[in-house]
Amino acid sequence: MALKFDTPAGVRSTGVARRLRGALFAALALAVAAGALPRKAEAAMPDGCAALQAKYPDLKGKTLTNAVNPHTPGYETIDPQDPSKYIGFDIDLGEAIGECLGFSLTYKPVTFAALLTTLQAGQADIVISDIYATKERAKAADFITYLKVFDGVLVAKGNPKKIDGINLSLCGTVAAENTGYVEVPLIQALEEECKKAGKPAPEILLFDNNANCIQAILAGRADTYINDVNTVDGAVKAYPDKLAKATAVTLPYSVGIAVPRGKTEFRDAVMAALVEIQKSGMQAEMMKKWNLPTDQIEAPKLVLAD
Amino acid sequence: MDLFVHYLSMPYLVEGVGYTLLITVLGLLGGFAMGLVLAWMQLSRFRALAIVARGYSIIFRGTPLILQMVFCYNALPLIGIKLTAISAASLALALNEAPFIAEILRANVIGVDRGQVSAGQALGMTPAAIMRRIVAPQAIRSMVPALGNETISALKNSSLASVVAVQELTLRSTQLASATFDFFSIFFASGLMYLVLTGAVAVIQIVIELLLDLDRPPPKEQFARFMRALLPGRGESALATAGAAPQTPADVAEEILEEIETDPLPPASPKVVNLHVRGIDREARARRLAGNAVAVEVTGLRKSYGPQAVLAGVDLTVRAGEIVAMLGPSGSGKSTLLRCINRLEGWDEGAIRVGGRFLGTDEAGRALSPRDVAQMRAGVGVGMVFQQFNLFGHLTARENIAGPLRWVQGLSRLNADRRAQELLERVGLAHRADALPRHLSGGQQQRVAIARAVAPGPSVLLLDEPTSALDPELVNEVLEVIQRLAVEEGLAMVISTHQLRFAGEVADRVVFLSGGRIVEEGPADQVLNTPRHPLTARFLSKMSAE
């Protein structure tokens, strides 16, 4: 339990707490690691942040808007205990970047397909919402990556259709996906291969949030939902009697933070802050807190339109 | 179940209801304001306005609300208009509701009986006054159910604001479902919340309908009716357990009794009695009338609807105090001529002067606006009685007479009511002063209509087949009223009628129209007894045969 969380100010100030510090600390760390205590990580600011704030003074004190699709448990959802707040790894990461550069964030919940249009319309300043940085999407926004992509294949328990990846096993099945997800074109591309193999093409049902995709499998309307492996794991945990993860696949993408195109100074500042946060180990801590495997961490790189 | 109750009482969702209501209310208010403008444009006599309004309707009724939401939120910023999510969603909802509300408004305005509009015009009411006093009060009553529908539909449509990040009930429900996986408890809870909202709208609609009910009973009975409307089964079963046979409500029973009751005219004035006893000295009267000023002068009047000529060159002079009966087969142009005389209709050629003034044009011959025509009509003093009575349906008999006196002649309420009461007494209907037209028989309605036309003291009264829509047994009471008026008031009258005996008794002169032309005219007894023109003779023999 080598977590580097500071105990919260409230606890630190009481004498009792100080005496029981070790025990409390362990309990807290356990709870946080299990994701059962959804609260903001109050980690110390990485060392390089002071310099970044000096370098990008315009951002200091500002309130920026983060567009999210809050239907992805572990990454971003509302807090069931206090639904006026958003919680998840992406939320913590955004808050940490804001803290590092001196700005604060408000949130704008939109459908997944509307994330980048909202950014383009100027209704949001940044998008940190488990969105994969593809060349196609880079036409709408600049991306700074922070995670590798592993997808899980969610199926009904027992995997009746024997689906084992984004391959010919999908021929003739029904996949639930969200509008705008990168998996959609990958599944569509199978149509040709299936035909060649003399099998019916896969069918896609388009929804606009994870909950609807998961319900589609539970209701028997869809055979699979292929999405971020952690989302899939979360769904299996919520419905262990009905759902299962058939397999995990690697996609040639990275998860990225989207910022408006052409705002290079802002983009540079965010990227620099992200580098500091990764360097200090903060990102790994946050990922542990939200049960994400730390081997998904990826050094920040830009994905821009050609 | 516990979860369901938990979500039902969750402040997060209840606040979402607040946003849902906010957007709905803003959208409906905006939609109503824009709908008013659109309806006005479509009803306007300026074609260009109607075309613009129609174009707007086609676009905003023909595209999905969800696209309009996204457009207001994401596309308007591209031209520099950056609205908050709530403003953008409310704007989109208002833009979308406007054409629907406009059509509701327009349909109900058009739905008000055109005859009542004609009657308002004939009384000298301006278009604005007719809209405010006659059309709007009746249109508003009839549009409540449709507006209730529209409100509920807007309430449900507000859920589409979730696509532009408005924190309304649907968005909050889906977010909560994503975070907790309690899909069904949450959606049942939010479904129930929507039901409570739409249920509240339904109750408000019932209350408004009851309040606007013209036959509104006293408050106690009203509450009982309200409860019956809410719980359709309950009221009846309560009656059944009480073992009582369904009773006719007191107010309805009273109406039925009054309907049965005869309402004789008051005793005739000495003048009328004298007339009946001694008969009329027709020649002396004709000599006296010949010296009177000209009240109505029609010269060379022509009018056609397309290729069909309705009036083919009519010349007619009516002197003050003279009573002219217009006879002729239907389609001969009688009604059109009467409607032209007080400018309810225009014509193609010729001129009409009433009291020496051209109605509808100024001295230089330029057409006047409808508003100025109305004022001129009131100034010159032309009253009109219609075949279909055309009483204002939402006003009592007394108000039908007193209202226009206040609105057009500017009488005080006291004086207008006094004059109305006096006239109702003269037509034998003082005891029905508070009855609505729909509770009066046809004969009673026509008597009220005559009293209304006479109330402002016109110099000319036009009567367009005043007894044709009546059951035979009701004809005489109306003819009697007209005859008395003729004797007592001494105003010029032009009556189109099929009642030959009445024409013979009352009219000074008979004019026979056929094919839009006056084919014969002369002293009443001469034309009726010894017609010269074969068409007149044929018509008269046919009428007497019936």
Automatic annotation (TrEMBL), chain B:
Topology class, membrane: Multi-pass membrane protein; Peripheral membrane protein
CDD domains from the UniProt entry: TM_PBP2
Keyword Lyase tagged: no
UniProt xrefs under PROSITE patterns: ABC_TM1, ABC_TRANSPORTER_1, ABC_TRANSPORTER_2
Location of the ABC transporter domain: 296-540
Compartments, record wording: Cell inner membrane; Cell membrane
SUPFAM superfamilies, sorted: MetI-like, P-loop containing nucleoside triphosphate hydrolases
Keyword Repeat: no
Transmembrane intervals: 20-41, 48-70, 181-208
Residue intervals of the ABC transmembrane type-1 domain: 17-205
A GO molecular function held by the record: ATP binding
UniProt KW keywords: ATP-binding, Cell membrane, Membrane, Nucleotide-binding, Transmembrane, Transmembrane helix, Transport
GO CC annotations on file: ATP-binding cassette (ABC) transporter complex
Domain of life, per lineage: Bacteria
Family the entry assigns: Belongs to the binding-protein-dependent transport system permease family. HisMQ subfamily.
Protein name: Amino acid ABC transporter permease/ATP-binding protein
Organism: Ancylobacter mangrovi
